[in-house]
Amino acid sequence: MPNLDDILKMAQNAQNELMKAQNDLDNVEVEGVSGGGMVRVKASAKGRIINVDIDESLLQPSEKQMVEDLIAAAINDARGKADIAAQDAMKKATGGLQLPPGFKMPF
After folding, report:
1. Does residue 41 contact residue 74 with C-beta atoms inside 8 Å?
2. Which residues contact 51 (CB under 8 A, 6 or more apart)?
3. CATH code of the domain containing 88
């Protein structure tokens, strides 16, 4: 049976791994797409928007509302992919350890 010092060291190591994984998320890029690829948004797994690419055919005043909708859809797609990338990174950092529902990380 591990003693208290061993348990504390394991907890500290786990916390260090989680912090490293959280910091690495800003280097993971995902791409959200809408309109059949006419609008693309690149984001980090932390949700930072890196780039927005809009097909030139959409750059007409009559297409304003559609472009706005497509941008919102691409951002939401990127955000969903960022959430999945973040969850995957956290699973790797915790070694698949299931955390209790509602458990908040220290970051």
Report:
1. yes
2. 40, 41, 42
3. 3.30.1310.10
